[in-house]
Amino acid sequence: MNILYIHxxxxxxxxxxxAILEQYGEVYSPFIDYEVIPxxxxxxxxxxxNRKIDVIIGSSMVGFAGYYVSNVLQCxxxxxxxxxxxxxxxxxxxNIQYKKSPFKQIVLGTRDDVVEPKGTLNFLxxxxxxxxxxxxxxYNDLAHRIPVDIFIKEVxxxxxxxxxxx
Length: 166
Hints:
The chain is an alpha/beta fold and 166 residues long. The protein is built from 5 helices and 6 strands; from the N terminus they run βαβαβαββαβα.
């Protein structure tokens, strides 16, 4: 399995989380400077179009980018606290030819003070007609950063769901 992990704003994939993901397949994790590259969605989609990406995983700013790259590449995505409703850095959203979105598992924390979870839920509600296949998990005490134990749990749930769909 080919996993595209896209880091958040000014972030990177930690060695601990990389090791967790490598249990499931080959991990690609490119560095993206969102503040310099406003077309990161188009760039990521083009860069990985021919690599047969099976799943996309990311959080925060990349949850936003991953949401749309998932649509372009037509593969499922696991998104932690995705900045779907608003972002601190502008990014262009390309015109996507597919009308329906593939499966997305979305993890939200009610204590997130960086990405407003209610805004994300409103965004998802407003797109139900074209993006209906979502699984949403809300953690009442989860903040913006994803602890390793929750990362392990949600990755396992996501991978189990994906394996049952194949």
